[in-house]
Amino acid sequence: MPALPARTPHPSRHDVLTAPTPHVYADLTPARVLDLLEAAGLQPDGRLLALNSFENRVYQFWQEEDAPGGAILVAKFYRPGRWSDAAIFEEHAFIAELAKAEIPAVPALPLAGGSTLLKLGQHRIAVFPRQGGRAPELEDAGTLAWLGRFLGRIHLIGARAPFRSRPALDAKTFGKESRDWLLAEGCIPPDLEDAWRSTVDMALESVAHCYDRAGPVRKLRLHGDCHMGNVLWVPEQGPHFVDFDDARSGPAIQDLWMLLSGERADMQRQLGEVLEGYQQFRDFDYAELNLIEALRTLRLIHHSAWIARRWHDPAFPAAFPWFDSPIYWQQRILELREQIALMDEPPLEPV
Predict the structure, then answer these.
(1) Phi and psi dihedrals of 286, rounded to 5?
(2) Of 129, 212, 192, which is closest to residue 331 (Cα–Cα)?
(3) Can you tell me the distance from the alpha carbon of 77 to that of 125, in angstroms, rounded to the nearest whole number?
(4) Which CATH architecture fits 24-129?
(5) 267: which residues sit within 8 A by CB, 6+ positions away?
(6) What is the pLDDT of residues 20-43, one digit of tens each?
(7) Which are the catalytic amino acids?
(8) How far apart are CA 227 and CA 130, in angstroms?
(9) By CB neighbour count within 10 A (0-12 exposed, 13-18 middle, 19+ buried), where does 70 fall?
(10) Domain spans of the chain?
(11) Residue 344: half-sphere exposure toward Cβ, Cα within 13 Å
(12) What CATH number belongs to 136-343?
């Protein structure tokens, strides 16, 4: 493990999490958002609805009648410093590639000047058609198979070429880098730091064992965050995949395991139904089943760092008020210990 900066005392941790810092989204009043949309060549009619999004700021807006692009659109204001322009253009290009193959993804629209990404002042903006729908019913076998078919098609496209500007989702980026940053910034309460560090280290050792059992893993372009909030179900049409903001390179199973829930028997049945649809379009490497709990573990570690890195954004203390408390980190330690035990179990077997 690389050497870490000297450990800082609890007051420094308090400063990290509570020091007032002007946030780049602070100027996004409704009037300012509408002005920026007009500057992007759009024709908002004054109606604006803030949508649920922590990573970026996302707004649904209505355009004047007969305005180009559609009557109802969605504008995304990208979080500064997270992705380079090149990485955002890769997101847009991947979605456009999927849409061209008649896969139900929602591509970004060209803005003033023809680009799908426009920089206005300190903000970078993209606009997408509004896609309606509801959450899929994952208890239905037909729904899971339908999701599997479209994920198989997405992965066929994703395997054609690599991302060049977007990082991989792996033990280094989600696990080790998250651990090292949290420790270096003094985010863990001092009396829990040793227990948390040792538990994370044991969890990452178990993650490495899971990857060893899986053997060589092929990385491809993924949705990356395929939870049910990013899948909209339309009757008679099926799923539409939205918000490719977390698209990264990684193993195919990353886009499948978040469809699974419940007890082990439930997940094995669900997995069988998803793979039944998936394999109609793309072969699946069953060795990747060894990675399900490893990827879940990496997501848990990464999530703590994700919150801490964005604590100066007022949306985060409001949404995660328990984060700056010992009980939060005690729960994470217990959660990771449970994951260590699960990673020692045989992988799921689809039925």
Answers:
(1) -65, -15
(2) 192
(3) 5
(4) 2-Layer Sandwich (3.30)
(5) 260, 261, 348
(6) 445 778 899 999 999 999 999 999
(7) 225, 243
(8) 19
(9) middle
(10) 24-129, 136-343
(11) 9
(12) 1.10.510.10
Q: What distance in Å separates the CA atoms of residue 154 and residue 281, rounded to the nearest whole number?
A: 10
Amino acid at 141: A
Write down the residue that tokens 């896609």 correspond to: 131
* Residue range 194-222, pLDDT digits in tens: 999 999 999 999 999 999 999 999 999 99
Q: Are 40 and 16 in contact (CB under 8 A)?
A: no
**CB-based contacts of 71, cutoff 8 Å, min separation 6:** 62, 63, 65
How would you class 26 by CB atoms within 10 Å of its CB: exposed for 0-12, middle for 13-18, buried for 19 or more?
Answer: exposed
pTM for the model stands at 0.91
**Are 24-129 and 136-343 equal in CATH topology?**
no
Q: How many CB atoms lie within 10 A of CB 283?
A: 10
Q: Confidence band (pLDDT; 50, 70, 90) for 270?
A: very high
State the average pLDDT for the chain: 91
Sheet order of strands, 118-120 included: 44-50, 57-63, 72-77, 123-129, 118-120
Both tokens of 114, joined, read: 């023809």
Give per-residue pLDDT as tens, 148-191. 999 999 999 999 999 999 999 999 999 999 999 999 999 999 99
Residue 348 DSSP class: P
Residues 25 and 57 sit within 8 Å (Cβ to Cβ):
yes
Helices (H), the chain: 10-18, 30-39, 85-100, 141-158, 177-184, 190-214, 254-257, 264-278, 292-309, 315-319, 326-343
Confidence of residue 45 (pLDDT cuts 50, 70, 90): very high
* Look-up of token digits 């039925």: 351
